[in-house]
């Protein structure tokens, strides 16, 4: 059902052929790096690509394959995911130049790696991936990720300091609140403004509720 619906929404031929493998790779994920995350990143990335003039096929394939190794929890999941993506594309007969572009972008995509993809397509997908980490969806994903990795939520409570190191609320300050300022494209920055504001509003509301002011 999901593959047929996706193809009907205009997926490219190579991406459509890989959809079942990607859905299997992401099945059962409870950390926010699931099939739905991939679909949102792909949708955002193609929207940004259309506005910024990036190559749609490369954008779609990078978005489709960017988290195929995320469930392993390995520190090098981007590098390993790039290897998997390259192998799958090679099996499907993709041109070598396209394979190398997709591989390189996936290897450089993660926030923790501190790198920027070399091509416009890679930067577009990095922007889309970062957009999905902020706003309402980003908040939900942050707490899902924290729970999946045994992190305390870190929500405020009377007599406690919120956001101790390693807590999910601390993750807002360590990463999520920095993402809007780390985007490459004007289109992504425009989309980020409201999402960033929602993160700040959530933190203010959580503090107000903890203090009994709301």
Secondary structure layout plus pairing:
Elements lengths: L1 H7 L4 H14 L8 H18 L3 H10 L11 H15 L4 H12 L12 H12 L3 H14 L19 H7 L11 H25 L4
Helix pairs in contact: 2-4, 3-4, 3-7, 4-6, 4-7, 5-6, 6-7, 7-10, 8-10
Describe what this molecule looks like in 3D:
The protein is an all-alpha fold and 214 residues long. It has two domains: 1-116, Hypothetical protein af1432 (Orthogonal Bundle); 133-214, Methane Monooxygenase Hydroxylase, Chain G, domain 1. It is 63% helix and 0% strand. The protein has helices at 2-8, 13-26, 35-52, 56-65, 77-91, 96-107, 120-131, 135-148, 168-174, 186-210. Helix 4 (56-65) packs across helix 7. The longest helix has 25 residues, at 186-210. The protein is elongated. It starts with a helix and ends with a helix. Residues 1-8 have low confidence and may be disordered.
Q: What is shown here, in short?
A:
The chain is mainly α and 214 residues long. It has two domains: 1-116, Hypothetical protein af1432; 133-214, Methane Monooxygenase Hydroxylase, Chain G, domain 1 (Up-down Bundle), CATH 1.20.58.1910.
């Amino acid at each position: 059902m999901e593959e047929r619906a996706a193809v009907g929404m205009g997926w490219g031929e190579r991406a459509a052929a890989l959809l079942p493998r990607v859905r299997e790779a992401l099945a059962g994920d409870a950390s926010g790096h699931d099939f739905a995350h991939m679909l949102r990143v792909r949708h955002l990335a193609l929207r940004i690509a259309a506005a910024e003039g990036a190559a749609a096929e490369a954008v779609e394939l990078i978005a489709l394959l960017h988290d195929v190794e995320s469930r392993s929890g390995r520190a090098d999941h981007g590098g390993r995911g790039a290897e998997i993506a390259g192998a799958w594309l090679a099996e499907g007969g993709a041109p070598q130049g396209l394979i190398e572009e997709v591989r390189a972008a996936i290897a450089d995509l993660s926030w923790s790696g501190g790198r920027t993809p070399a091509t416009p397509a890679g930067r577009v997908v990095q922007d889309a991936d970062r957009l999905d980490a902020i706003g309402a969806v980003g908040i939900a994903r942050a707490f899902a990720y924290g729970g999946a990795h045994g992190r305390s939520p870190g929500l405020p409570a009377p007599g406690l300091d919120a956001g101790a190191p390693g807590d999910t609320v601390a993750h807002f300050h360590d990463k999520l609140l920095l993402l809007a300022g780390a985007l490459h494209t004007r289109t992504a920055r425009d989309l980020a403004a409201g999402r960033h504001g929602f993160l700040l509003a959530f933190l203010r509301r959580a503090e107000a509720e903890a203090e009994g002011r709301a």
